[in-house]
Sequence to fold (446 residues):
Amino acid sequence: MEIAVVDYKGGNVQSVLFALERLGAQATLTADPEILRKADKVLFPGEGEAASAMEALRAAGLHKVLPTLTQPFLGICLGMQLLGQHSEENDTPLLGLLPFNVKRFVPNTTHKVPHMGWNNLQDLQGPLFAGLTDADHVYFVHSYYAPVGNYTTAQASHPAPFSAAVQHGNFHGVQFHTEKSGAVGTRILANFLSL
Amino acid sequence: MVKKRLIPCLDVRDGRTVKGIQFEGLRDAGDPISLAARYAQEGADELVFLDITATNQRRQPLTHLVRDVARVLDIPFTVGGGISTVADVEALLMSGADKVSINSAALARPGLISELARRFGSQCVVVAVDARLVEQEWQVMTRAGTVATGRQAVDWCREAADLGAGELLLTSMSHDGTKAGFALELTRAVSEAVPVPVIASGGAGQPSDFTAVFKAGGADAALAASIFHFNETALPALKQYLHAEGIAIRL
Fold:
């Protein structure tokens, strides 16, 4: 199986590569449209700030390539948010593959921002979550979120529910870090690889 | 809801895990990679690696250790010690660290916090604050706790959060290694002053200390070293205890 990890100089991709390696999967880190198109699976990790990530994607010409991909595609963290329409983070237009607008959490004394740490998943739907339950926890670290909609395949709360995972066709996204979520994250990553 | 986190801290010197009392008198506590793997297995929510010799010897942290750790670890980890430039941080993140912790360099030049937050995002910028109780005031110390800065802990924490820190690692040097409990009032004061998560550190001795720092201290996470390294308190038992005490914890 050919696995491509999108390389757009957008932060920490090493953890995702190591997680794939622990699953016995060989991945290619690439920004080459041809390799991306031919891969069986594409992973799109993201960290950092939305506007500079979109800028890096445009600089690499990937803003036009990614939306045309037809194989199973997984956006992680900021990589999930970039699939939406627009982000409140520096008023940034996104890739526009899913209908959500990304908003910022409002902190209070008991709910800090960033939403950082282990939170349980709720209302799990679809093949990524095969074998998992509402009692399972995954690791989040983010200050912006996608609201719940008909594209939502898992929710978490902080304190209101938000999209922990989304899907539209071959495009999947998870707000949490599969590569840093222990055995639960490993299972989700393995589920994605077997799509 | 997001759970309270338990974070074993591995102080690393010359490739070994060490632990002292109030930052001095170091004891050997083993190989950091096997300790890290053991903690992850036992349910640690995150790990922190501090290269405790880095700042005083002006040496860059060990990126190869970070790489070795990232290869085996499937939970998040933070690296600190001697980090002073954007290039230092980039090297560590590219090696697989999830967050970096900065301390002396941020005190010397607070603008570094904003530079890092802009470049890499606040989520990976932890500002570590070492505070010591001097004449009833919590003073911020720098250079591995050896030099007083004249700053007040709560003020500096607020400033660091305003500049873009995504999390604060608050250590009471007056409690560090004493096992007499965390600095509850300091932790509460900082937690109420900033919108970002606060990791309390220094003084963990028994399970009830963790209940206190989460309830009375308002901490989002608690960091400890000695009690974990020397097998005095096992993580699974501690998590069961906290769960029974009504603390939201990942089991």
Q: What stands out?
A: The two ends of chain B are 14 Å apart (CA to CA). The mean pLDDT of chain B is 90. Chain B has one domain: 5-244.
